[in-house]
Amino acid sequence: MTHRICFDGVDNRWNTALPLGNGKFGAMVFFEERTLHIALNHYDCYYPILPRYARQSEKSAAKTYEELRAQVDRARGEPGYERSHYTDTLNPAPPDSRPSYRTTSYPMAGEILLPLGPEMKPDDYSLALNIEEAKVVFVARGGDQEVGCTIWIAQRLDGLFVQLSQSEPGLWGDAGLVIPSERGLGGYSVSQGLETDTHWLRSSFQPESERDLSHVITVETALTVTRDCLVASVSTESAVAQTRLLRSMEHELEAEHAEAWKAFWRSTVELPDKFLETLWHLHMYLIGCASGLGSAYPEQACGLNGLWDIRRPSLWGSMWYWDVNIQQAFWPVFSSNHLELAKLFCEGYLKYGQDAERFARDVYGADGWALDYPHALYNCIQPWCAQFLWQYYSYSGDIEFLMDTAYPVFQKQIRFFKQLARPDENGILHIDPDISPEQGPVSRDSVITIASIKQLLRYAAQAAEALSRPACESEEYRRLLDALPEYARTADGSRLKDSALAPDDLFLRHPSVLMPIFPAEEVSRHSPEEVLDVMRNTLKYVSSHTETGMFGFGWVACAAAKLGEGTAALRILYEEGLDYILHSNGLGYEESERFINYCLVTKPPLYPPAMTEPSGGIVMAVNTMLLQADEYIEVFPAVPDGYDGLWEPQAEYRHLDWHLQGRYPKWEDCRFTGLLAPGGFEVSAERKAGEISWIRVTASRQEKLCLLLPAHLSPLGNQMVYTKVMEPGETVSFGMPGTAQSGASPSVQERQAAFTHRRVYLGEDRHTEFHKAVDACTCAFRLGNAHQYPITPYVFDFGLAEDERNYDSTYPKQHFRTGKSLLFFGAPKRVGLEAYTGDRGYGFASLEGLAAQDRSAPDDMRRDFIEGSADGEFWIELPRGKYNLLVVSGDEEGESVTHIGLPHLSGRMPGEVMRAGRYQCRTIPFVHERDGAFRLGLSTEAGFRWKLNALFLNKEYTFC
């Protein structure tokens, strides 16, 4: 099966643009107001702004470790210290001070504009990303006219191609190259021009903190235009010359592009949940597009935003963000069988080695590789990243990499740890002071730090043995491991807490306490029951007490899958993440029409780009459901079984549970091919009717295979661990494979969120705008971690009032929730040809010239309407106050124009010509200044009729 994201018959915008990339050069494509936009980005032109690349940078001296310790010791004497935040201890500010927010504006590579010509009048159009092909395709048709284009990025030479077609000359307009925004670009000098057939745009700047005035970097973007093709390139050298070279190599590069992306799909999944299946392929594609492969700045890799930062200003800017951000983006590259991307992470990480050793000397006066570089006291950072070095060896078997690269890093980090750790009277080694990133006080022995150091020591011991190092080395690592403290627990001992000094009920911005489960993988579903009890309790707490955002949901879902809780993992993926962060292009953002991240609530208006962490979290969670390897390889260890062992009732009374509970049925049938297990085993498997029907394993090197076989596939007729020393290229197979799925995924896919009931889309069509408008008016919005509920006292459905209607598909049962209590709003009021009366409180001012029509489609709300050709008014009696009004107008069978007026406010919103089957959805905020009838004016143009299908009235507050 192939997968796609499609905007069918509707515009999309920069925040739902479709992504392309070759690892370091990328584009985001969208079609808006008859113009195709292609926003460009290139890491080699984007990253040089960072202070790291200044020749003479102003750097402030870091506090020494002793200074930090003294500061912490003083603060710990203050009452209520356990409720402090570490920033208040290390960087205290006056209590009445206000934060100063700094936004970022990285270099912009420009945006290609390709308009439709004035003669092209499309009746229909579509823009689609064909994921497996890594191409965006646009088609528009009108009568006998047709235009189209295919957009792709070459795998080498960094060229973007737009291959044009048109049924007759002049249907495409003239292409251009622009910088789409000016805000925040004061530090850039921008010029542009035209040379024969090539547009060029140049942007010059200096790295941040640069003191060498002669160090100026210039980014050049070029667009070469021919009759049937546009070619664009971005470079710090001559992009003009580059595009002309690219044009001469179009067919060669296209063949290479096709071959490269065909080879990329070494692993695939088939799931009964097609929404998630599409997301898996999309986000694996995104990792490949934005990995950083081939960039001149491997130490930045995919950064925080990948190649998707196309509007300015934003909040963070993209770079190698330590802590969870960069790690999560690369989590699935091992199990998804992309060791070339895993090696890329390792190479980027190793670029910081000298900096980490310098940090150890300057801040600590110590030898080795500082565990907390570059953020003092974040002692989990470096051993966490070092996990990737061992995993690369474990999956690849590259013994030279282990000997020359990974093991020396382990040794340096352990050397530093031995100087940092402070033994108590029992010889237990403590990390004090220590920080759990983003939360809690400056503490000691945070769970994330201890778990990361434990895993570092385990890997070092295994590495020493694999390399036949002197036995004393592995013995020392195990002695150090045994000397580490137990994980901090709550007062009742039932679960882990963030750190020794943190309060039991700490709200988690990071699910850091899950590190022992994932990604350190110290605990699995096969651990002793007493350990699992604590870890399940920890997981249950974390799943409902973690900030909604970009990385938390993926981390928690991976941990749930690791403990065998597949249904919970699926629920958490959706209900703690995807239901909020997804835009209809399938990418994850810190702000959507359903959600704004805690980090952005107090910030200025920004243009937040898509983030890279969700990609890793989504793919890794699915992989962990499908394949795990501890002492042996196990297929389908955590597929959803319909039972959620972590779910807790959300409503006060059981008869209301259904309203807030998502539906996650058992995965009876699923399949994966080409996932990779430690030891370099490529695994494929299939599950039919709830039973494993086929397993195939291919070895990449000589290695002992240990594989759990179910009884019906076992040669002995009972469940067993099958063992065999495999040779390179050797394959073993059990059972018979079924037929892989064929065809394409649906163009537009929809899911309804469990808590808010808002619809979440992959792609959009002519109905999406209506559903989104209704949801925005009637469903909860997540502000940080709190739900805000609209108050909708009136929903009017106009037309033939006699029929019974089912509104479930258009207007889900609306609720208001506080704690576990639920209140429900009533059904829409059916309004026919009814005149206003003071007793009723609503109706038309006059019925003259009005008619009711019913088209029987597309749904029970939009199918019928009231219409008129003369000016009309609909009145609603309201107390004075502040309101929002959603007006829906259109006709499934004919064209219409509906102008909306607010006569008593002297306001008017002109309508557009709506083609048959199209619906205008206008949201109007207004202040009703006097008690009494609010008058909604309706008018049209000559030759048309206005239509009124539905009104939704929201109340913000009354008696203002």
TrEMBL record:
Organism this protein belongs to: Paenibacillus soyae
Protein name: Glycoside hydrolase N-terminal domain-containing protein
UniProt-listed Pfam families: Glyco_hyd_65N_2, Glyco_hydro_95_cat
One of the GO BP terms on file: carbohydrate metabolic process
Coiled coil: none
Glycosyl hydrolase family 95 N-terminal domain span: 13-136
InterPro entries reported for this sequence: 6-hairpin_glycosidase_sf, 6hp_glycosidase-like_sf, Galactose-bd-like_sf, GH95_cat, GH95_N_dom, Glyco_hydro_b
Region (Disordered): 74-101
Recorded GO MF terms: alpha-L-fucosidase activity
Domain Glycosyl hydrolase family 95 catalytic: 272-573
Superkingdom classification of source: Bacteria
Keywords linked to the UniProt accession: Hydrolase
Compositionally biased spans, kind Basic and acidic residues: 74-86
